[in-house]
Amino acid sequence: MPILSLKHISKRYGAIQALSGVSFEVPKGAVFGILGPNGSGKTTLLGIVTDVLKADEGSYSLFDAPPAASLRRQIGTLLETPNFYHYLSAYQNLQIAASIKQRPETDISRVLGIAGLANRQHSRFKTYSLGMKQRLAIASALLGDPEVLILDEPTNGLDPAGIAEVRELILQLAQSGKTIILASHLLDEVEKVCSHVAILQQGKLLLSGPVNEVLAREDFVELSAADNRALETVLSRHPAFGHILGRSTHLQVVFKQPVDPAALNAWCVEQGIWLNHINTRKQSLEKAFLQITNN
Amino acid sequence: MLQIIRTEWLKVRSYRAFWVMVLLAVAIVPGGNYIAAEITSQIQQKTKELIAIAPYDFPLIWQSMANVNSYMTALFAIPMLILVTNEFTYRTHRQNIIDGWERRQFVYAKLFWWLALGLLAFITSVVFAVILGLAYGDHGFSFEGFRYMWYYFLQVQVSLAIALLIAVLVRRAGLAIVLYLAYTMMVEQVLVLLIKRKIGEVGGLLPLQSGDELLPFPVIGKLIGTGDRFDDSVYLLMLFVYIALFIFLVFRRMLKTDY
């Protein structure tokens, strides 16, 4: 059963097409990343799913059923910015969230503890720093221990320790079997925690599927010799030669099959080229992402 | 509905500014009427032969209080405007839906305040009418003319519905308050005068004026009243029509718009 199923969702803001015909499914138990640059439509998409925005076209289902408030109450959501009553304390704000979600108030202390706000729970929201506000929003999403979480840029405003904590928390929640939908423009965040990913660009879905397939990255070998031109000519005759990825101080060569550096070195010697540098590397995530979005 | 009311209670329970505004609105009822009672009792003492019953004596007190209070309705609308625009300022209207309210439940929550503040104005008026009537009057307690209190109640509901509609359309507290005060204190009065002069009595059917037409000040109102006004039932009907219309527009706005 898919937790969330989107069918041809489109949304326009005046002249801007925020989403055009986006369809994908989030399987149960997945940590599903929605990846895309700022303004690609991630928050708009999650806004539609949480009924704060109305789609112009298309439909979606939650838990394989038509969307309803009772289903939204089973999802812990952090959308865009933390939205709380400024004149109330963290605890009082979570009382309101618990009341709407129809969850017991006894859970408030637990989630404030997870978010590291237990000591400041009776301070007014307006006295909170940006990071603390974000932590409170995460606490609110966790209220009632929902089976599904929607987290839109959850590490926004957090310091490096906070970012690491939230990532650890997401992994722990994923291991406990929860389904997590995570929107982010941070590639490594998605790669570190997600099992599946959908890539959006200018409102269009470019790719979606398991993260290893969508963000597949080529291994390449960095090589250099006294004469890199001669080296390139020789390498092009190698039986596993794929293509040249880059030419700078070193040649960056992609092979069709994995090659052993020692064997490659020996092969080059046989061809009369003496290597002065050889290193096997993985294409950077940014490059892989740019390749997808540029194509 | 109880869950909605409980949630709204949690929102205002510790909101000091809200309670100060409500307290002021309640306090102005005895305050304003005390002044009016003092003045009218002095006038009445000097013109005993002309006016047999004091306006702040039973049975006229219901009408007098309803009339005087109708000028102070805005004080009950301010907390309403603040509560609703706060939701947009803090974007908590969005969060309430995200957390699991239907959009219509968000409107119900605000309609709860619409009714609660109206009832508060009504009950405050009734309580202080009894107190002032017994303090200033020579006649015994009577419910004669109590209908004016119901007219007042309906006028408050129209006024609060205007405030609610402006709040959901404008979304910003400052602008909403200015627009509301401008409409209730000036724009409608000017329109009423213009329409009455150019077209006729139909000018008396504007939202707040419909209530005013039902609430003339005793004795004086009759002296300056025009002869060709509509029947009271028409004004009464218009109050219900306006309430239904404004609430319909609030629902339409909140159910269809992006949050």
UniProtKB/TrEMBL annotation, chain A:
UniProt protein name? ABC transporter ATP-binding protein
- What InterPro entries is this protein classified in? AAA+_ATPase, ABC_transporter-like_ATP-bd, ABC_transporter-like_CS, P-loop_NTPase
- Occurrences of domain ABC transporter (ranges): 4-227
**Gene Ontology MF: a single term:** ATP hydrolysis activity
| One Pfam family in the UniProt entry | ABC_tran
Q: Does the keyword Isomerase apply?
A: no
Keyword annotations for this protein, in alphabetical order, are: ATP-binding, Nucleotide-binding, Transport
Family named by the database record: Belongs to the ABC transporter superfamily.
Per the UniProt record, the source organism is Chitinophaga agrisoli
Highest taxon of the source?
A: Bacteria
PROSITE patterns this protein is in? ABC_TRANSPORTER_1, ABC_TRANSPORTER_2
From TrEMBL, chain B:
Q: Which domain of life is it from?
A: Bacteria
> Which species expresses this protein natively?
Chitinophaga agrisoli
| Keywords of this entry | Membrane, Transmembrane, Transmembrane helix
User: Know the name of this protein?
Assistant: ABC-2 family transporter
User: Can the keyword Chaperone be found in this entry's annotation?
Assistant: no
Pfam families found in the cross-reference section: ABC2_membrane_4
What parts of the sequence cross the membrane? 17-37, 71-90, 111-136, 148-170, 177-195, 233-251
Which PANTHER family does UniProt cross-reference here? INTEGRAL MEMBRANE PROTEIN-RELATED, MEMBRANE PROTEIN
Keyword Secreted listed? The answer is: no
